[in-house]
Amino acid sequence: MTDTAAVLKDVFGFDGFRPGQGEIVEAVTAGENVLAIMPTGGGKSLCFQLPALLREGVTVVISPLIALMRDQVRALQEAGVAAGALTSGNTSEETDAVFEALSAGRLKLLYMAPERLAAGSGFLRRVGVAMIAVDEAHCVSQWGHDFRPDYLRIGALRRDLRVPLAAFTATADAETRAEIVEKLFNGEVPRTFLRGFDRPNIHLAFAAKDGPRRQILEFAAARKGQSGIVYCGTRSKTEGLAAALREAGHAALHYHGGMEAEDRRIAETRFQREDGLIVVATVAFGMGVDKPDIRWVAHADLPKSIEAYYQEIGRAGRDGAPAETLTLFGPDDIRLRRAQIDEGLAPPERRAADHARLNALLGLAEALECRRKTLLAYFDESEVGCGNCDLCDRPAEVFDGTTAVRKALSAILRTEEWFGAGHLIDILLGHETDKVRQRGHDQLPTFAVGKEYDRRAWQAIFRQMMGHDLVRPDPERHGALRLTDAALPILRGEAEIALRRDTIRAAAASRRPAVKAMVSEEDAPLLSALKAKRRAFAEAAKVPAYVIFNDRTLIEMAQDRPQTLDDMARISGVGAKKLERYGAAFLEVVVGEAQQMHPSRRKLAGRSAGSVYDRLLAVQADLARGTDGVDKPLSCSASQLAKVAQMREADATALQRLLGDRRAERFGPAFLDVLREAG
């Protein structure tokens, strides 16, 4: 077992890397400058934490959120790693302990907020910094909504310390990557890893708005007791929806940028630590959310762009266990997002790029086939499997909408692009409203040509037209619809368009969203019992539950039902330190009784040396009174047996040095037979 594999298993409890992690770990460990663009939840932290343990000196981790840093430090400490953080949230005792560990050369990872760099790099030069890791590196980009001015100091720190730097982000666009290279690496292109963006464990789903509060409440009800995030477009909506969720019996709170800093901090802490809590938030609640067992993310309003959507749904299922999403959208969302872009202060080319990003998201919302293929095509990925989205679950019913769209476009043109969808639908349906009569629109050739659909169906057709960017609201005409260039081929009969029939039917009873169970019905009671045990440990230690074990680890325990500590050690996420601290307690939940194991043997649990130890122990029992059973009792200590079990090049001389003459004489030949059989 290589050093890397040994640390991966013993400290982090994993038998292997996730796709793409291994080569990044290798490059960072070798001291190369690295830029890694990895999907949200793709395991970025491991890519700098593991190399930090393999390299001499201290690795400084620059991270933007205090709560996130503190939780990562606690998780590392639980795994037996010497880690600390210097943040404004530290007590004086915590800060003293960090400096003492630095002075003694014990600390391997030091987490710092970027603002801390303003004080200069003097003390970092003195403590032997070997590497800098930058989490959420896109914060250096002045184009991004997460821009942090203090990130601009990191490049100078790298030059001062003359150490390698590894930068990590989930933001993929070329503009941001170029800024990271310029600001953090002084323009020298680092070794760059662009990992695939697929998160196959996340189920993707969109739905047209049809009573959005009810839709969100139904979605949450089908997932009661699971941690979730609901994103809303306005602050007031977060407060109202959180209250509605609480009235429905959920543990829920709101979060937005207008709250007092202390209230926001309390909300963040509660969400990190409590099982099954729902946060209803604006996008102010986002970067740095690293709770691995968020089981679902819902959008009560359409996100700003496809990148924003990808980042926000990526906060679900970071532990790799199944997670679900639901995104609601309607014509008002589309009008609002278009207006925000058109009325912004960005230069024209930036506005055009923002419209293109919104178009990509609307294309995903109005997709006629697999969501995952549509989403990943935006990131230039074409080899995509799915089976885990609403359109794969239940293919869309599609019809030729060319005639309906042509009628709608004609109505827009004949009214000189001065009206919104409501008035245009009245014309198409032949409704003689005062507004229609006053403007003479009851005399238009398009008057009453659309009676094959009702108002609700026409609303869905107009929404799909906006989603396909055939028409856009004009902010200078109070949101009146105008044709885009994309509409002209359809209007002229040069192109056709398919629409979804299932979104234009008259109001039907909404289907209650089905929850995807985390485990089978048979395993569910055991999973609940394991979660209760985890909660007790977490509350006693005042840490988030996932710091003890994440959901994926508990799911594996519930499904595999380990019968021994050796079995427990093979569960993903159970490292040596956690096996020592919690293994017996969780095993007792599974098998109903505690298993005793000597600490020396427990350190070998789950490894081949463990079964060698057991055979050595059996041989020793047979020979305790010699081959004839009449000699004076003799035995080796547990630590001696553990050392023998781990011997690679064993011979009689090596055993004699380890065990002494008498024990080597009695047990040596039999022990060598066991080692040869195991080798």
Descriptive report:
Residues 25-190 form the Helicase ATP-binding domain. Residues 520-600 form the HRDC domain. Keywords: ATP-binding, DNA damage, DNA recombination, DNA repair, DNA-binding, Helicase, Hydrolase, Isomerase, Metal-binding, Nucleotide-binding, Zinc. The chain is α/β, with parallel strands linked by helices and 679 residues long. The chain has 4 domains: 3-194, 3-Layer(aba) Sandwich (Rossmann fold); 202-393, P-loop containing nucleotide triphosphate hydrolases (Rossmann fold); 398-503, Winged helix-like DNA-binding domain superfamily/Winged helix DNA-binding domain (Arc Repressor Mutant, subunit A, Orthogonal Bundle), CATH 1.10.10; 608-678. It is 46% helix and 11% strand. The chain contains 31 helices and 18 strands. The strands form 4 sheets. It has a 7-stranded parallel sheet, sandwiched between helices. α7 links the parallel β5 and β6 (165-169). It is elongated. The model is unreliable at 506-513 (pLDDT under 50).
Spell out the blueprint of helices and strands:
Layout lengths: L2 H8 L10 H9 L4 E4 L8 H9 L3 E5 L3 H13 L4 E4 L5 H12 L5 E4 L9 H5 L2 E6 L19 H8 L3 E5 L4 H11 L6 E4 L7 E2 L2 E3 L3 H10 L6 E4 L3 H13 L4 E4 L5 H13 L4 E4 L14 E4 L6 H8 L9 E7 L1 H12 L5 H18 L5 H8 L11 H4 L4 E3 L1 H13 L6 H9 L4 H5 L16 H13 L3 E4 L5 E4 L4 H4 L6 E3 L23 H18 L3 H4 L2 H10 L4 H5 L6 H16 L7 H4 L5 H16 L14 H8 L6 H8 L1 H18 L1
Parallel strand pairs: 1-6, 1-7, 2-4, 2-5, 3-4, 5-6, 8-14, 9-14, 10-12, 10-13, 11-12, 13-14
Antiparallel strand pairs: 15-18, 16-17
